[in-house]
Amino acid sequence: MWPRDEVHAILHFDSGINMDAGVAGKRKHFDLDEDTTNRKKHLAEDDEKKHTSIVFSLKEEVGSLARALKLFEDHKVNMSHIESRPSKCSKSEYDFIVDCEELQGAKLEKFMDALKGHAFSIMLHSEEGGGICQLHINN
């Protein structure tokens, strides 16, 4: 996830963008002031929400990610960010990093119990507990 200063810097690039490279002198201009204001408002609202980050490993097989992501839908967990990378532990596994909003308390416990059935390992960082919890599961 990008640091907020970098996101702010990206939103303030030169607004003169050449959308038609083949047509000399024709430029499209976009006003990013409204977009920047909306982004700042979203980031401020985002700061008020409690976040939980989950890193989990899945075996590389057809449908494993789809099954894991279905859990997020089933448990009504809102993902604000997701990324993947090959696991450093095993070439046949992938690690997924997911930032979630408002995943706390009993909802978090139920979700983690469900995710345990699909993941090889889970690392959790929750603002509620103020720390990191790492679970190793061998399925």
From TrEMBL:
Q: Which residues form the ACT domain?
A: 53-129
Molecular functions (GO terms): iron ion binding; phenylalanine 4-monooxygenase activity
Q: Its Enzyme Commission number?
A: 1.14.16.1
Q: What highest taxon heads this organism's lineage? A: Eukaryota
InterPro entries (alphabetical): ACT-like_dom_sf, ACT_dom, ArAA_hydroxylase
Q: Which Pfam families match?
A: ACT
Q: What class of enzyme is it?
A: oxidoreductase
Instruction: Enumerate the PANTHER family for this protein.
Output: AROMATIC AMINO ACID HYDROXYLASE, PHENYLALANINE-4-HYDROXYLASE
Protein's recorded name: phenylalanine 4-monooxygenase
